[in-house]
Amino acid sequence: MPAILFVLTSAAKTFTGAPAGWYLPEAAHPYYVLAPHATIDFASPAGPNPPISEGSVKMFESDPECVKFLADETVKSKLASAKKLSEVNAKAERLRCCLLRRRPWARHRFGCRPGQHQTCIRGKKYSVSILNVPFDDHAQFYQAGKITAAVCHGPAALVGATDAEGKSIFAGKNATGFSNAEETQIDTVKDVPFLLEDKIGSLGGKYEKAADPWAPHVVVDGNLYTGQNPASSAPIGEAVLKGLKL
Ligand SMILES: *[C@@H]1O[C@H](CO)[C@@H](O)[C@H](O)[C@H]1NC(C)=O
């Protein structure tokens, strides 16, 4: 059984000071898709017990998998022993897939700010989450042909990643991510440093989205896997499962 590492954000606030944290369904849904097929661990930039988005806990209080995830003793123990991302990065050569989540705006040296985000990378040993790590690392995973998957605002963590020729990994690729309409509807345009839909387009990507806001949409192009919004959380887990041929 392969091992997967989910890495969650350590940022409890956005750069405007709004509450943030990792977004519950974007961890819980892919977790239960992948858990029967892999050993899953967690990581975050700061290590143990990454902060959860309380808003997401409230929003998904009737979602069976989210409820189960919060009460799951195995999950609790994995969160309590979440590895520091810097320790995971040292093993990057063993990773094969990366799954990023919502609101990756991090106050890190590339000027992006993470709020809520989660990532998973799957390799011989792990799947991990990568927020707050240098984009060079994303590029390294991607260039090695590993599945690089991101959902919701997660693709924002990849906007600086390049392919072997130095081009954006979005250039010429079909991709998705949180849409301008969705960002506008929840009044968070002011809380993000750029709109993902516009950014993917400006990097030469072909941005796609579901016909209606909030509907699930997943795009797989080569080893770049992207999901549009929270509803795309389970679908991106399924896409990763398929891509890994588990
Ligand atoms: C990208 O989108 C175009 C148009 O929608 C489609 O024809 C093409 O097959 C897609 N490429 C991949 C790799 O999905």
From TrEMBL:
<keyword id="KW-0456">Lyase</keyword>
<dbReference type="GO" id="GO:0005737">
    <property type="term" value="C:cytoplasm"/>
</dbReference>
<dbReference type="InterPro" id="IPR002818">
    <property type="entry name" value="DJ-1/PfpI"/>
</dbReference>
<dbReference type="GO" id="GO:0019243">
    <property type="term" value="P:methylglyoxal catabolic process to D-lactate via S-lactoyl-glutathione"/>
</dbReference>
<dbReference type="InterPro" id="IPR050325">
    <property type="entry name" value="Prot/Nucl_acid_deglycase"/>
</dbReference>
<dbReference type="GO" id="GO:0019172">
    <property type="term" value="F:glyoxalase III activity"/>
</dbReference>
<dbReference type="InterPro" id="IPR029062">
    <property type="entry name" value="Class_I_gatase-like"/>
</dbReference>
<keyword id="KW-0346">Stress response</keyword>
<feature type="domain" description="DJ-1/PfpI">
    <location>
        <begin position="140"/>
        <end position="240"/>
    </location>
</feature>
<comment type="similarity">
    <text>Belongs to the peptidase C56 family. HSP31-like subfamily.</text>
</comment>
<dbReference type="Pfam" id="PF01965">
    <property type="entry name" value="DJ-1_PfpI"/>
</dbReference>
<protein>
    <recommendedName>
        <fullName>D-lactate dehydratase</fullName>
        <ecNumber>4.2.1.130</ecNumber>
    </recommendedName>
</protein>
